[in-house]
Amino acid sequence: MFAYILRRLLLMIPTLIGVVTLTFVVTQFVPGGPVEQMMTQLRHGQSRGGEGGSGGGVGYHASQGLDPQQVEDIKKQFGFDKPPLTRYVLMLEDYATFRLGDSYYQHASVWSVIVSKLPVSLTLGLWTLVLTYAVAIPLGIAKAVRAGSRFDTFTSVVVLVGYAIPGFVLGVLLLMLFGGGTFWQVFPMRGLTSDNFADLSLAGKVLDYLWHIVLPVTASVVGNFAIVSILTKNTFLDEIGRQYVLTARAKGAPERRVLWRHVFRNAMIPLLTGLPAAFVGAFLNGSLLIETLFSLDGMGLLSYDAVIRRDYPVVLGSLYLFTLIGLVTKLIADVCYVLVDPRIQFHSLDR
Predict the structure, then answer these.
(1) Residue 282: which of 168, 128, 166, 163 has the closest Cα?
(2) Contact 249, 258 (CB under 8 A)
(3) I need a labelling partner for 294 at 20 to 30 A (CA). Which of 69, 144, 263, 279 fits?
(4) C-alpha span between 129 and 279 (Å, rounded)
């Protein structure tokens, strides 16, 4: 086990370097970089980023009419006074010690910017994950036990319809119905808390928080039920048809005991081993459309804004951090798979 984990950890290094290198190279050719945007603001007195040139260089039209010393000062302000290779090497040295740099526009470190946006993503991700597994797994078990029945058919139609409706469209519909858009003003339309949240009691804060997350969490979670419930149903049906189940039934074991003591344990292996990746993915995969619709300032809006404004430290730093978390999570999932199912050996995972 130790050799496998060490080998996987060492393989993460070239993967991280490859991801960061590719993104860094792309940013050098994206037009409308931060230097050019500053040039345009100085020339026209307003924000009009995106005029030609490379992502880090200074186009002719952007610098035209400006004092050369002023141009050099702006390039130094954003770190573009050094050659690309030098900036790349310095970036790798910083990332090796988890120094992600400072945002160009938010006047804060990339770490603090990411941490400030995490509460929204954590809220949506955690509730989506908990509700998905809490509803879909029992539903999948019930569908497997009643396979082919009207209940199975009806629930399949319901979850597939929910899967087919985009979360953003469902969010708009929920706002129209329950957010005061057209019909009833039942739930708040925006934010995670009310303006007077600090003045509320502990119970009032909990209720206020729960009241605000009903609509965005509902819009996020409905589409996830189909995958987990159908996966649970199929794994249960696969296990129910195995020889050990037939043997237990032939020996006169009660059906409930066969289902929950034998089938349940083996059928849950694929779901349990995928839980670490789903757990982390639920936190990091911010939904831009859901956050925009419900005015939630989370990782989705941060990523979009960083790309649009060419905030390269935020783009590269968050990509590096989340890629590392994803690789570690995949390793944890593989280790959990071996621990849960003794039939799997570490050498088989390398094939």
Answers:
(1) 128
(2) yes
(3) 279
(4) 7
- Amino acid identity of residue 257, one-letter, is R
Q: What are phi and psi of 268, to 5 degrees?
A: -85, -10
User: How buried is residue 98: exposed, middle or buried, by Cβ count under 10 Å (0-12/13-18/19+)?
Assistant: exposed
Cα 49 to Cα 307: distance, rounded to the nearest angstrom: 12
Tokens of residue 281, six digits: 């993915």
Question: What is the longest distance spanned by two Cα atoms in the chain?
Answer: 91
With tokens 């090497």, the residue in question is 89
Question: Tokens standing for 9?
Answer: 């950890």
Tens of pLDDT along 52-108? 444 444 444 555 556 677 777 777 777 777 888 888 898 899 898 888 888 888 888
What letters, b where the CB count within 10 A reaches 16 and e where it falls short, cover 291-324? bebbebbbbbbbbeebeebbbbbbbbbbbbbbbb
The count of other CB atoms within 10 Å of the CB of residue 43 is 16
Backbone angles phi, psi at 193, to 5 degrees: -145, 165
**Structural contact between residues 122 and 47, judged by C-beta atoms closer than 8 angstroms:** no
Tell me how far apart the alpha carbons of residues 103 and 116 are, in angstroms, rounded to a whole number. 13
Structure letter (DSSP) for residue 263? I
| DSSP conformation letters of 117-155 | HHHHHHHHHHHHHHHHHHHHHHHHHHHHHTTTSHHHHHH
- Threshold 0.90, pTM exceeds: no
* Tokens 């597939």 sit on residue: 160
- Angstrom distance (rounded) from CA 36 to CA 259: 65
Closest by CA to 110, choosing from 316, 327, 336, is 316
